[in-house]
Every structure is written in C-alpha cells, then in structure tokens.
Amino acid sequence: MRTLIKNAICILEDETLKTNILFDQQKILTCDAAKTTVADETIEANGLHLIPGLIDDQVHFREPGMTHKEDIFYGSAGCAKGGITTFLEMPNTIPSTTSNEALYAKINTASKNSLVNYGFFIGATNDNLKELQKATRTPGIKIFFGSSTGDLLVEDMDILESIFSETNLPIAGHCEDEAIIKNNFKKFKKEIEITSDVMLHSKIRDRKAAISSTEKITKLAKKTNKNMHVLHLSTKEEIEIIKNHQNLITAEACIPHLMFTLDDYDKLKTLVQGNPSVKTKEDQQALFDGLNQGVIQVIATDHAPHTLEEKMQRYPKSPSGMPSVENSLALMLNQVNKNKISLERVIKCMATNPAKLWNIPHKGKIKTDYHSDLVLVDLNKEKTIKNKDQITKCAWSPWDGQKITGWPEMVWVNGLRVFAEDKIDYSKRGKEVLFSEERKGFWNR
C-alpha cells in the first residue's frame, strides 16, 4: 500500500517547500516524488502543510486502576484525532509501573488497544533499583520529587543519588519540593477550610516549591553526570537554572502552563488546577521565550484526565490535571497564527526533539527512510472546541467554547490513515516504540 500526497507544503529537516511525499506502511519512500508517480492512494493537499507526527512524552492514560476516567484505547484515539502519532505514558497508575512485569503488562495492553504508537516509563521508588537497572523497553525512569500516587514519591537524597549513578536510562523528573508544599498546606489550611478557594493551590504548590526542587535535582544530575529531563517547567526562574545544562539537562513546557495563568482561576476554577500549579503571565511569557530560544526543548501535554464530576468537587478534594491530547496541536497552531511561536519551532519541540531526547530512531522528521507518521494540517481552519465533541473518556475540555485557528485534517500512523474528515478509524493499531540501544544524551546526538 503506497500513498502519495501531492502539493503539500512540507516542513523538512532543513527547508520548507511544496513537494510530493510518497510513503508506504513502513517508511517515507521519497520527499520529492515525480508528479507522474503511481500510488495506491493519491491525496491532493492543495497547499496544506504536512508535518511529522507528534510525539507526546508525558501522558497519563490511567490504565490500569482508574479506567473510569481514561484508558489506552480512548486516550490513543484522542492522540489520533489530535495529530499525536506516538505517546510515552507515565507510571502513576494503580498499581504503579515500578516493575518490568508491570511495564510489560502495559505494553501488552497497548498492543491490543492503542490506535497510535506507544511507550511507557518505568517509575522509581525507594526500593526498586534492581528493576530500574533491568529495564530496557522504556524511554526512561520517571521520578516524582514531589507528592504523587502510591509509592512513587522519592525524597531521600541518598536513594536519589543511587538511582542517578547506578542506572543507565535517562531520567524524567517531576520537580516540586515536597517539604515546601507540606509547609504551605499547613500555612493555608484554615483558609482552605473556610473558603475552598482553588487559587490557594498556586500558593501551596508555589514557585518556591518548583524552583527549589529543580535547582536541587539539576545539581544532582551534574554531580552524577546523568541525563535529566525536567518535566513541565512553570516558572521563569527554572528556565535560568536549566540554561547551565552542561550537556546533560533538557526541559519541557506543557500545554496547561502555556495556555493558562493565575487569571484563569476566576472563570475556570478547579478545571485549571494542576501540578505544578499555573503561574503568572510573566512566567507564561518566559516559557514561550524559552521555547523560541531553544532553552526549552520539548512541548508536551501532561494529559491528566479526571471526570468532570471529580474536577468539580470543592478544593482541595478536586484532583489536579486536565485532558489535552486531542487539542494540543490545534492550540499550538493557534499560537503560530498569533505569531507567538513559529510552525518550525512547534514541530521541533513536539516531534523532532522528543524523538532525539528519548532515543527513538527514524521518527520526528519528514525524511526519506523515516517512519511514515504524518499529519496534514490546515493552518487556516477555524473550529470551536466543544465538550460534546471530545472523544477521550472524560469527555470535557478546559477550552470548551474557545475558537481555534489551525487544525489537523488527516493523520497517518505507520502509513495507515487513522483520522480524516473529522472521523477516527478505530480499527487501526499502532506499534511499540523501539529505543536505540546506545542511549546518548540529547546534546550529544
């Protein structure tokens, strides 16, 4: 089965040009196909943009243990609709993914249920060093330095140093200082009981909690010469910290912190409650500046769905997190149209760099012999996000009612079309992501 996309504006590795792309169910065959090329399927792009499929390196699909709010099937369907052709999922499920047995169980579930390509992080605990040392079928080790589900919190610096120095995989870290969070909660406990004001969430999980943890953990990465990826930066100060990366440290900005600030609590209340908490407009601008300057390398979703009933509980019973995989590309294309960021930078941060960071060969670029994961986007298409249109399992969006300009039109995973004409082909299945055996740091590739 060979597909030819004609007259697409392609964002290639070193240039942008209108061309014809030919691919099959394994790889891109040529980025300069002749007009006379014969294929099983020919699509006239009419000048729409063709970009590589996105790689989202931080999603929470809640399976096993919390499938009433999300699962791999519906989460991956949201990815297919949104132009994400590969996801890397986090370990804070029930039970946590802290053993190779649990890791393989998730991979097996995804092989049957995922519409797009998939990989799963293994989580660190205070006593699973041997499991981490044996793990190979994973992008890396996820460590929660701030509170999390189950047994995933690791605070002891001696244990952390052992994990950093005695494992081979790169580390992804949730950086919030647990001691600061606990002290802040005590400080505001009475006010919370009286008001249930969700704005207090940003005072409990304040900027000091994020800054302190990021500073502490990046120092440990440098001390142990360990590749460390700082997840979901939320403050301008953290950006200054990671600038001195010593070829070891990378970072990401997530959709919630790029799209929301403290001002959004007034209207959206607990719907924008997340960990780390949203911060100021100045912090938000610093994140965009960091992306545009290349200091922040990745844009991810931190897709963390809960049911609307759960989210609408009075704070602090309301859980943190929000769904975003099916709208993340459109939200960023909307920012492209507002001249906040270039399309080339969006592609680099949502496709090329995640592949490079997590050592995923032949993904993240439109290039001959690369995997045929592709997205055709219409930068001028206008559509309003509506709760009733959401297909991820929790069936709501914090962007409900917002008009967005720029949307994916067609999506191919491994050369097979999984989304077109606003419809998902639920019969398609993705593949397990293969990671390069030689794990090189981002800056050394």
Explain what you see.
This protein is an alpha/beta fold. The chain has a single domain, classed as Metal-dependent hydrolases (TIM Barrel, Alpha-Beta Barrel). 31% of the residues lie in helices and 21% in strands. It is built from 14 helices and 18 strands. The chain has helices at 72-82, 100-113, 129-134, 157-166, 178-195, 201-204, 207-224, 236-243, 255-259, 265-268, 281-293, 308-311, 328-337, 343-357, and strands at 3-11, 16-23, 28-30, 41-44, 49-52, 54-59, 84-89, 117-120, 122-123, 141-144, 171-174, 228-230, 249-254, 298-300, 374-384, 403-413, 416-420, 423-424. The strands form 3 sheets. Strands 1, 2, 3, 4, 5, 15, 16, 17 and 18 form a 9-stranded mixed beta sheet that branches. It has a 6-stranded parallel beta sheet with strand order 9-10-11-12-13-14. Helix 7 runs parallel beside helix 8 (236-243). The protein is globular and about 70 Å long. The mean pLDDT is 96.
- Strand segment count: 18
Strand percentage:
15-25%
Unreliable sequence segments:
none
* CATH class placement: Alpha Beta
CATH topology: TIM Barrel
CATH architecture: Alpha-Beta Barrel
Structural class: alpha/beta
Overall pLDDT: 96
- Kindly report the name of the CATH homologous superfamily: Metal-dependent hydrolases
Per DSSP, the total helix count is 14
Q: What oligomeric arrangement do these chains adopt?
A: single chain
Query: How can the largest sheet be summarized?
Result: 9 strands, mixed
Rg result:
21 Å
Number of domains: 1
